[in-house]
Amino acid sequence: MSRRFNFTGREKILKEDVRISINFDGCSSICNVHLWLGEYDIRPDASVIVEAQRGRVIRLRHSWGHAGQAFTEEGASSNFDISAMGDPDDIRFRILVVDPDSCQLLATAEGVDTTDREDSNTPQRSLLPIIMQDLSGGIWELEMGEIPTLLLDTSLGSKNDLKSSPVLHAILPGVIRAILINLAHEQEGSADDEEDLSTWLSLGKRWAGYIPPSNSTHQEIDDWAQKATIAFCREKKLRNRLANFINQED
Length: 250
Hints:
This protein is α+β, with helices and mostly antiparallel strands and 250 residues long. It has 2 domains: 11-123, Immunoglobulin-like (Sandwich); 130-249, no CATH class. The chain has helices at residues 159-162, 166-186, 199-208, 218-236, 238-249; strands spanning 11-12, 18-25, 28-35, 47-54, 58-66, 76-81, 92-98, 105-112, 115-116, 119-123, 130-133, 140-144, 148-153. Strands 1-8-7-4-5 form a 5-stranded mixed β-sheet, with no helix packed on it. Strands 2-3-6 form a 3-stranded antiparallel β-sheet, with no helix packed on it. Strand 12 and strand 13 form a beta hairpin. Helix 2 runs antiparallel to helix 4 (218-236) and helix 3 (199-208) crosses helix 4. The chain is elongated and about 65 Å long.
């Protein structure tokens, strides 16, 4: 049953006091939520609830435990399975600390991203989300929305398996090149220095060694994207990975 919370007078939990990471166990996506709540004026027996959400419609709620568990210097954590939400790349989280008697909301953290477990300052959100779809005989497609998204055909296997598969290694250069060409044309004439570049174009600049050409021909942009893609392949050692896989198969 859904519960209604009183939002009056709540404290704001700082995002540095929340660390959320996702681990993949077979076909399951396991979320770990680590909290430090010792600096907040809240009851130790207050209930802590974590909400995983995608947009305003899809939500999954987890009873984390009691706030007092996170009053120590080390903090405390709790795991829950978010596999039912599908692809975790665009999931955000809310932390709700609730008075057990009045249901008054004592403290919250809104819009929390996942982070890399080895570096709590590094967002875990994928720069290139992958979605598995039936592509009617195709292998991959690229959706250029707010964040470029790679669509892979479901017949290729599970997404978790593909992330370390030579199939993805073979596909990635063409995908990277397509993204860079598309964004370079979109931003043509509007980016005069590196500060104006999107994340992807900044990566392209690093790989190619120079900013994508402005007010230039399609061939010049194509050449820039190709140079960046080759540098990307070298950085990720994709040719060696594919060659090793082929040699193992022989």
